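Hi all, posting the design record for the shared folder.

TITLE: backbone redesign
STEP: 1 of 1
STRUCTURE INPUT:
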Protein backbone atom coordinates (compact mmCIF):
# COMPACT_ATOMS: atom_id res chain seq x y z
CA UNK A 1 0.00 0.00 0.00
CA UNK A 2 2.86 2.40 0.81
CA UNK A 3 4.43 1.76 -2.57
CA UNK A 4 1.17 2.64 -4.34
CA UNK A 5 0.79 5.82 -2.27
CA UNK A 6 4.39 6.79 -3.04
CA UNK A 7 3.87 6.19 -6.78
CA UNK A 8 0.71 8.33 -6.73
CA UNK A 9 2.59 11.10 -4.87
CA UNK A 10 5.46 11.00 -7.38
CA UNK A 11 2.98 11.07 -10.26
CA UNK A 12 1.23 14.11 -8.78
CA UNK A 13 4.58 15.91 -8.33
CA UNK A 14 5.60 15.22 -11.94
CA UNK A 15 2.22 16.39 -13.23
CA UNK A 16 2.28 19.59 -11.17
CA UNK A 17 5.85 20.31 -12.28
CA UNK A 18 4.90 19.81 -15.93
CA UNK A 19 1.84 22.03 -15.45
CA UNK A 20 3.98 24.78 -13.87
CA UNK A 21 6.47 24.55 -16.77
CA UNK A 22 3.59 24.85 -19.24
CA UNK A 23 2.08 27.86 -17.45
CA UNK A 24 5.51 29.51 -17.19
CA UNK A 25 6.36 28.93 -20.88
CA UNK A 26 2.96 29.66 -22.46
CA UNK A 27 1.43 32.27 -20.14
CA UNK A 28 3.92 33.98 -17.84
CA UNK A 29 6.56 34.50 -20.53
CA UNK A 30 3.95 36.24 -22.70
CA UNK A 31 2.77 38.74 -20.08
CA UNK A 32 3.46 42.20 -21.60
CA UNK A 33 5.29 43.40 -18.50
CA UNK A 34 9.01 42.78 -18.08
CA UNK A 35 8.81 43.29 -14.30
CA UNK A 36 6.22 40.55 -13.86
CA UNK A 37 8.14 38.14 -16.12
CA UNK A 38 11.38 38.96 -14.31
CA UNK A 39 9.79 38.16 -10.94
CA UNK A 40 9.19 34.57 -12.12
CA UNK A 41 12.44 34.27 -14.11
CA UNK A 42 14.54 35.12 -11.05
CA UNK A 43 12.97 32.18 -9.22
CA UNK A 44 13.57 29.79 -12.10
CA UNK A 45 17.27 30.51 -12.94
CA UNK A 46 20.31 29.50 -10.91
CA UNK A 47 21.77 33.01 -11.14
CA UNK A 48 20.79 36.26 -12.84
CA UNK A 49 22.78 39.50 -12.93
CA UNK A 50 21.40 43.02 -12.86
CA UNK A 51 19.84 44.90 -15.77
CA UNK A 52 19.24 41.83 -17.92
CA UNK A 53 16.16 42.07 -20.13
CA UNK A 54 14.00 39.17 -21.33
CA UNK A 55 11.52 39.78 -24.14
CA UNK A 56 8.27 37.84 -24.40
CA UNK A 57 8.32 34.20 -25.40
CA UNK A 58 11.70 33.16 -24.00
CA UNK A 59 11.69 29.43 -23.19
CA UNK A 60 13.74 28.20 -20.24
CA UNK A 61 14.37 24.49 -19.79
CA UNK A 62 15.81 23.39 -16.42
CA UNK A 63 16.64 26.87 -15.18
CA UNK A 64 18.60 25.55 -12.19
CA UNK A 65 21.49 24.94 -14.64
CA UNK A 66 21.35 28.38 -16.27
CA UNK A 67 23.55 31.28 -15.13
CA UNK A 68 23.14 34.70 -16.78
CA UNK A 69 25.25 37.80 -16.14
CA UNK A 70 24.40 41.51 -16.10
CA UNK A 71 23.36 43.86 -18.92
CA UNK A 72 22.18 41.09 -21.25
CA UNK A 73 19.40 41.22 -23.83
CA UNK A 74 17.52 37.97 -24.40
CA UNK A 75 15.19 38.62 -27.34
CA UNK A 76 11.82 37.06 -28.12
CA UNK A 77 11.40 33.33 -28.63
CA UNK A 78 14.93 32.43 -27.50
CA UNK A 79 15.32 28.90 -26.13
CA UNK A 80 17.73 28.44 -23.20
CA UNK A 81 18.29 24.74 -22.51
CA UNK A 82 19.84 23.61 -19.23
CA UNK A 83 18.82 19.93 -19.43
CA UNK A 84 22.17 18.48 -20.53
CA UNK A 85 24.55 20.58 -18.46
CA UNK A 86 25.35 24.06 -17.31
CA UNK A 87 24.55 27.04 -19.56
CA UNK A 88 26.60 30.09 -18.62
CA UNK A 89 26.00 33.46 -20.28
CA UNK A 90 28.39 36.29 -19.38
CA UNK A 91 27.83 40.05 -19.12
CA UNK A 92 26.69 42.31 -21.98
CA UNK A 93 25.57 39.44 -24.17
CA UNK A 94 23.02 40.21 -26.89
CA UNK A 95 21.02 37.19 -28.07
CA UNK A 96 18.86 37.74 -31.16
CA UNK A 97 15.32 36.45 -31.53
CA UNK A 98 14.53 32.81 -32.24
CA UNK A 99 17.99 31.61 -31.18
CA UNK A 100 18.27 28.10 -29.71
CA UNK A 101 21.03 27.32 -27.22
CA UNK A 102 21.15 23.57 -26.52
CA UNK A 103 22.98 21.64 -23.81
CA UNK A 104 21.34 18.34 -24.79
CA UNK A 105 21.16 16.52 -28.13
CA UNK A 106 20.80 12.99 -29.45
CA UNK A 107 23.82 10.94 -30.48
CA UNK A 108 23.28 10.20 -34.18
CA UNK A 109 25.63 7.20 -33.96
CA UNK A 110 23.90 5.56 -31.01
CA UNK A 111 21.73 2.54 -31.80
CA UNK A 112 19.24 3.63 -29.12
CA UNK A 113 19.10 7.36 -29.96
CA UNK A 114 20.50 8.26 -26.54
CA UNK A 115 20.76 11.85 -25.43
CA UNK A 116 24.16 13.36 -24.70
CA UNK A 117 24.77 16.63 -22.93
CA UNK A 118 27.47 19.23 -22.73
CA UNK A 119 28.09 22.54 -21.04
CA UNK A 120 27.73 25.74 -23.07
CA UNK A 121 29.66 28.87 -22.12
CA UNK A 122 29.05 32.25 -23.73
CA UNK A 123 31.61 34.77 -22.52
CA UNK A 124 31.18 38.55 -22.07
CA UNK A 125 30.25 40.92 -24.93
CA UNK A 126 29.15 38.18 -27.32
CA UNK A 127 26.67 39.23 -29.98
CA UNK A 128 24.46 36.43 -31.28
CA UNK A 129 22.25 37.43 -34.20
CA UNK A 130 18.78 36.05 -34.96
CA UNK A 131 17.94 32.38 -35.55
CA UNK A 132 21.31 31.01 -34.45
CA UNK A 133 21.62 27.46 -33.14
CA UNK A 134 24.34 26.68 -30.58
CA UNK A 135 24.98 23.00 -29.89
CA UNK A 136 26.17 21.34 -26.64
CA UNK A 137 29.80 21.49 -25.58
CA UNK A 138 30.53 24.86 -27.20
CA UNK A 139 32.44 27.83 -25.74
CA UNK A 140 32.04 31.22 -27.41
CA UNK A 141 34.91 33.56 -26.60
CA UNK A 142 34.71 37.14 -25.36
CA UNK A 143 33.48 39.65 -27.93
CA UNK A 144 32.68 37.07 -30.62
CA UNK A 145 29.91 37.72 -33.15
CA UNK A 146 27.69 34.94 -34.50
CA UNK A 147 25.94 35.81 -37.79
CA UNK A 148 22.25 35.20 -38.49
CA UNK A 149 21.16 31.60 -39.18
CA UNK A 150 24.53 30.13 -38.17
CA UNK A 151 24.88 26.74 -36.50
CA UNK A 152 27.71 26.75 -33.93
CA UNK A 153 29.15 23.24 -33.54
CA UNK A 154 32.66 24.08 -32.27
CA UNK A 155 34.32 26.59 -29.95
CA UNK A 156 34.53 30.17 -31.22
CA UNK A 157 37.69 32.17 -30.39
CA UNK A 158 37.47 35.58 -28.70
CA UNK A 159 36.63 38.48 -31.05
CA UNK A 160 35.94 36.13 -33.98
CA UNK A 161 33.09 36.77 -36.41
CA UNK A 162 31.58 33.47 -37.52
CA UNK A 163 28.85 32.57 -40.01
CA UNK A 164 27.37 29.60 -41.81
CA UNK A 165 26.34 26.00 -41.32
CA UNK A 166 28.48 24.89 -39.64
CA UNK A 167 29.75 28.26 -38.43
CA UNK A 168 33.23 29.18 -39.65
CA UNK A 169 35.32 32.26 -38.93
CA UNK A 170 34.85 34.97 -41.57
CA UNK A 171 36.46 37.91 -39.77
CA UNK A 172 37.70 39.51 -36.58
CA UNK A 173 35.79 42.05 -34.50
CA UNK A 174 37.63 45.33 -33.97
CA UNK A 175 35.93 46.85 -30.92
CA UNK A 176 37.23 47.83 -27.50
CA UNK A 177 33.99 46.49 -25.99
CA UNK A 178 33.40 49.52 -23.77
CA UNK A 179 29.60 49.39 -23.74
CA UNK A 180 26.91 48.18 -21.32
CA UNK A 181 23.74 46.97 -22.98
CA UNK A 182 20.70 49.00 -21.90
CA UNK A 183 18.01 47.42 -24.06
CA UNK A 184 14.55 47.96 -22.55
CA UNK A 185 11.74 48.10 -25.11
CA UNK A 186 8.25 48.81 -23.85
CA UNK A 187 5.67 45.98 -23.99
CA UNK A 188 7.97 43.30 -25.36
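Okay, here is what came back for every position:
SEQUENCE:
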Amino acid sequence: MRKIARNVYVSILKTSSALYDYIFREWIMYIPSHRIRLFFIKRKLAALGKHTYFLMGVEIRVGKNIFIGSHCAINKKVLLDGRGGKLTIGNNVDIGQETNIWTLEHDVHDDYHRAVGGEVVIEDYVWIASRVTILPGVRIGKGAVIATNSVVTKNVPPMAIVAGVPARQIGVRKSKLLYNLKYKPLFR
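COMMENT: The first strand starts at residue 47 and ends at 48.
Let me know if anyone wants the other runs.
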